[in-house]
Design goal:
The structure holds 3 protein chains of 3 kinds. By secondary structure, chain A is mainly alpha-helical. Chain A has a single domain (about 10-350, about 360-385), classed as Up-down Bundle (Formate dehydrogenase/DMSO reductase fold). Chain A is built from 14 helices and 3 strands. The longest helix of chain A has about 30 residues, at about 230-260. Chain B is mainly alpha-helical. Chain B is elongated and about 85 Å long. Chain C is of the alpha+beta class. In chain C, α2 runs antiparallel to α3 (about 40-45). Chain C is globular, with a radius of gyration of 19 Å. The chains are: A mainly alpha, B mainly alpha, C alpha+beta. Chains in contact: A-C, B-C.
Chain lengths: ~400, ~140, ~260
């Protein structure tokens, strides 16, 4: 392999500046919306006492899951020793930090009392997965920052593999922690499953890589740097495997639920008679989010088309978003079973599927979080030597002669 | 002759900006004087409970956050609501309010009114407090 | 010597306080009746059914509980009203029905195959091992030593994880700014809240508001005291816990569901 030359992007193109400014504007609007939400209280959102976590949490958890997935590209090169991924590792680290920060900002700003961040940082209850996640998330940022530094600073390159391995193990635990936020809830039937922890890990592989690939393709096209087929093909094939793996996990999840009579109803709710959630599942998650991208990735006539590959990534991202929407919102909308097998009614919406329609404030907060992530990554691209000047096959392929 | 480059021009601009900023910040110290305000808070105290409180006034001024916090924890966590003689705890917010609340036009005033016992001093000291997002700020009866 | 003397004085004043409270009638109802009828030695254990000394920390010697007899045809809405009055609930002006706070609600349960139905009030079940306490990141969701589960709003950051974790849907989130709260039930925007078994009333030696309003269909007392009315009831009746399969060992039990 020839010597790789990394360089920051120039960042003076019209496209770059427009992108940065639009992100800043979206973030500003999002913050104004948050101010209104915190000033008024959560009554202006669609969230209520049954659906207690709403659209912001879907955005936040997507970003957090994608963050650990984005790190995979670096992990494959450092922890698993695949040289082909080494040129992509730097962006991978920075992207992981950016996505995580965006997600955490959303979670924080959606709190009932965001002014009490200091309480969350000083009072800990170690039986809570949330408390563990506070350490997992902040530790992740720290470790990946050190990891990125060892990659960027040549004298410290010798530590890269070691720190990279730590980061890889940490990210697996982190995603299990995120999955366990739901997996350890006995109260709501859709969540009461240990499968959620590994399922979230597989989801992170898929969503993270889709985000990474989309960003990489876009960045190389806009900065007019050459990107060879060798690396794109590898990432594409890997993405295909991950998407199929997620579909497999979803299948297993529903099969285990359908098998046990106590969980059968919630599975049937999502698969058959859940109204909006059923439509989202089949159209959003399965057809658009799974089958369509797999078709693009594996059909010989389409697979080498970069635009279609970008489209596949977008579909996987949207499908993943829909999947989390079904897990988070659908799982809450399904009524809590106070008396399993009995018909339950009350003035407090017992026994009926909860209504949830997100308000514009929640959407603006979510989009602002995504913009914060993109802003961090895109500014880092301008500041640090993250991307190789060229990823033509002669540079990217370690076996190229 | 000094050659003014764009660079030195930038430096000069920056210095002028910083100077103006400093003048504005320092000038703001004189605003109360110009506006004719007195230095020191005008606390509206209801003397309904007499001159005595749970501690001498200067100690209360310094220590009341700690008192309130200590006793809120013992009440919330351990269920301690009274002293052994049956009297209220020193850091009882309820007792503070019941004693120090003041009326205007025959009605107890809320913390949004600058004359409220708590507000009058906290506004002066520039210290925000969030007790009354949950606690009531007037006596119940 | 002097310390012993002061100890005696404290003991004396405690007894005085107990007497005072007793005489002034803050200890009321069936608990007192039970206390008077038995010998002086047992009297003390009987009095432990209501809290009298509020200057000492509560201990796990006592575990408060409620048993609800759904076979008695009582209008449970009276309990809901009493609860709302006691805690000043229902004063939201902007929240919709699903966003408003309810500490206690009336639930109708119907057996789909047989058609048998019963109506029961559901509130926080005051679990021995509460999921809401396990999941709370800051420790705001707490269980007092005497078994009462509630939220310390001073530490609540409003993350709502406890609401996700509660199998009884017992918790509510305050969705808007509140004013004019009850003195004994501070509650405000951005915090989670739930039934606290009227901890303020228990500490005064009173029974929870819903129990008082239940026309005898709810019994409140100390589950650890085998001679208490509630323990005697539980010993001879076939009572149930809601979602007993979760093994949370709830402090609230039901008869006839």
């Amino acid at each position: 392999m020839k010597y790789l030359h990394y360089l920051q992007i120039k960042g003076n193109s019209k496209a770059y500046i427009t992108f940065i400014v639009s992100l800043a504007v979206i973030i500003l609007i999002g913050l104004l919306s948050v101010y209104q939400m915190e000033h008024q209280g959560h009554w202006i959102t669609g969230m209520n006492n049954q659906v207690v976590w709403g659209l912001p949490h879907v955005f936040a958890i997507f970003l957090i899951v994608a963050a650990s997935g984005a790190l995979n590209v670096a992990s494959i090169s450092s922890a698993l020793g695949k040289k082909a991924y080494k040129p992509l590792a730097r962006l991978s680290g920075v992207m992981a930090i950016g996505l995580l920060v965006g997600g955490l900002v959303i979670l924080l700003l959606d709190l009932g009392r965001p002014d009490r961040l200091i309480v969350a940082m000083t009072e800990f209850n170690f039986t809570s997965i949330f408390t563990w996640n506070i350490f997992l998330y902040s530790g992740f940022i720290g470790i990946v920052a050190v990891y990125s530094w060892t990659m960027l600073d040549r004298p410290y390159n010798k530590f890269t593999n070691m720190v990279g391995t730590v980061a890889f193990v940490w990210r697996l635990i982190l995603t299990m922690g995120t999955g366990s936020i739901f997996g350890m809830l006995i109260s709501r039937e859709a969540y009461d499953s240990a499968l959620l922890a590994p399922m979230f890990i597989i989801m992170s592989f898929s969503f993270g890589l889709a985000v990474y690939l989309l960003y990489l393709l876009t960045a190389y096209r806009l900065s007019e740097r050459p990107l060879g087929d060798y690396i794109v093909t590898r990432l594409r094939n890997l993405l295909g495997i991950f998407v199929a793996a997620v579909a497999f996990m979803v299948l297993i999840y529903h099969l285990t639920f359908l098998y046990s009579s106590e969980h059968r109803d919630v599975s049937l709710f999502i698969l058959l008679d859940g109204g909006i959630y059923t439509s989202l599942f089949w159209i959003g998650q399965i057809i658009l989010g799974t089958i369509a991208p797999l078709a693009i990735i594996y059909t010989p006539s389409m697979k080498n088309n970069r635009n279609l590959l970008s489209l596949a990534s977008v579909l996987i991202i949207l499908g993943g978003f829909v999947q989390l929407y079904i897990i988070i919102i659908g799982g809450q909308a399904y009524p809590i079973q106070l008396f399993p097998g009995y018909e339950v009614t009350s003035t407090f919406a017992d026994g009926i599927v909860a209504q949830y329609s997100p308000s514009i404030n929640e959407f603006l907060l979510g989009i602002a979080g995504v913009s914060i992530s993109l802003l961090i990554i895109t500014i880092a691209l301008r500041l640090f030597h993250l991307l190789p000047l060229s990823l033509e096959d002669k540079y990217a392929n370690p076996h190229h002669s | 002759m000094i050659k003014i480059t764009t660079y030195t021009l930038e430096i000069i601009k920056f210095k002028v900006f910083i100077t103006l900023l400093l003048i504005m910040i320092m000038g703001s110290c004189f605003v109360p004087v110009v506006a004719g305000d007195k230095i020191g808070p005008e606390i509206t105290v209801s003397k309904a409970g007499g001159d005595e409180c749970v501690l001498p006034a200067d100690e209360i001024r310094r220590l009341h956050p700690g008192l309130l916090k200590h006793d809120r924890n013992s009440t919330m966590r351990e269920g301690i609501r009274t002293l052994s003689d049956g009297g209220h705890l020193k850091g009882s917010l309820k007792a503070c309010i019941n004693c120090h609340a003041i009326k205007e036009d025959g009605k107890y005033i809320n913390t949004s009114n600058p004359n409220h016992f708590c507000t009058s001093c906290h506004v002066y000291a520039g210290v925000s407090f969030d007790c009354f997002q949950c606690h009531r700020d007037t006596p119940e009866k | 010597m002097s310390s012993k003397a002061s100890n005696q004085t404290t003991e004396q004043s405690k007894t005085d306080l107990t007497k005072r409270k007793f005489l002034s009638g803050t200890v009321t109802g069936s608990m007192v009746a039970a206390g008077v009828s038995v010998a002086p030695g047992i009297f003390l254990t009987q009095v432990a059914q209501a809290r009298t000394n509020t200057s000492a920390a509560v201990t796990s010697d006592v575990r408060w509980g409620i048993v609800i007899d759904t076979t008695k045809k009582v209008d449970w809405n009276k309990c809901v009203d009493a609860c709302n009055r006691e805690h000043g609930l229902g004063n939201e002006t902007k929240s919709n029905q699903e966003q408003k706070t309810e500490y206690i609600r009336v639930v109708k349960v119907k057996n789909k195959t047989t058609g048998y139905s019963s109506t029961l009030p559901v509130m926080c079940q005051h679990c021995e091992t509460p999921p809401c306490v396990d999941v709370c990141p800051t420790g705001a969701s707490m269980k007092r030593e005497d078994g009462i589960v509630y939220v310390d709003r001073h530490l609540c950051i409003g993350c709502r994880y406890c609401m996700m974790a509660c199998p009884y849907k017992a918790r509510s989130f305050v969705h808007e700014t509140l004013t004019d709260q009850k003195e004994n039930t501070p509650r405000g925007k951005g915090c989670v809240e739930s039934c606290n078994m009227c901890v303020n009333r228990i500490d005064q030696g009173l029974k929870p508001a819903c129990v008082d309003a239940s026309e005898g269909a709810m019994i409140f007392g100390d589950l650890n005291d085998k001679s208490s009315e509630i323990s005697k009831f539980l010993a001879i009746q076939n009572t149930k816990q809601i979602r007993a399969d979760l093994r949370l060992n709830t402090g609230v039990r039901y008869q006839g569901i």
